[in-house]
Specification:
With 88 residues, this protein is mostly helical. The chain has one domain (3-68). It is built from two helices and no strands. The relative contact order is 0.06.
Length: 88
């Protein structure tokens, strides 16, 4: 406590209220920012889950193409049976 606070206690009270108001504003802004970060995280998780689903579907599609494909035997040049794969 200073001499100014003793003479004018209302000034100290006003300053304390301003400080409290500043802290409340900072708290509210931090809360809004946290909510936005949580929403972005949820959106990113949904996008990632969709990407994984799409990649799994693409893998299944490519596996079907491989299973139904005809491949040439590199030694003879002839087509093998459906789904038969030759190695070198």
């Amino acid at each position: 406590m200073t001499l100014g606070d003793i003479i004018n206690p209302w000034g100290a009270l006003r300053a304390a209220r301003r400080t409290l108001a500043d802290h409340k504003v900072a708290y509210a802004l931090a809360h809004i920012e946290l909510r936005g970060a949580r929403e972005r995280a949820a959106t990113d998780e949904k996008a990632q889950a969709l990407a994984v689903h799409n990649l799994k579907a693409e893998i299944k599609r490519l596996e079907k193409i491989i299973a139904d494909g005809h491949y040439r035997n590199p030694e003879t040049g002839r087509l093998g049976r459906r789904g038969e794969v030759f190695t070198r």
